[in-house]
Amino acid sequence: MLDLGCGTGFWLPRYAAHAREVIGVEPDVDLLQRARSRTPEARVLHGSAEHIPLGDASVDVVQARFTYFFPTPGNDCSAGLSELMRVLRPGGTLVVIDNDQVNGDFADLLAVSSAAEPQGYEDYVPDWWSAQGAHTAAVMST
């Protein structure tokens, strides 16, 4: 399992409890040591969505939580998605978790912020994922 954009590695021990092998990839060099010290069962590498330091078809599951390549008008993110698909085994699973831009507290904050326009409009992100052949599902949490 690959945790792409693993940050401080918070989720790595939880994934390691269930996966045969866990790899974290993080672009921020300041977070690498924290992620590496989180659990000895995970391997943490420096890299990014566009440059994943793993071989072709080398992981079964990729998880990206609030991370790297969420599409916005002017940021297509196709390079990151292509690289991710390179390392994902055929039949593997990609799980991307992002903030809801339509419902909930984040959407309310986004609507009144100067960051709203670059984030796109309410249909932009789901339409982008659909054009990539992805299935999306809304999961509301607290």
TrEMBL record:
PANTHER family reported in the protein's UniProt record: METHYLTRANSFERASE
GO molecular function: S-adenosylmethionine-dependent methyltransferase activity
Pfam families linked to this entry: Methyltransf_11 (PF08241)
KW Repressor (keyword) present: no
A GO BP entry: methylation
This protein's name: Class I SAM-dependent methyltransferase
Methyltransferase type domain span: 2-96
Key words of the record: Methyltransferase, Transferase
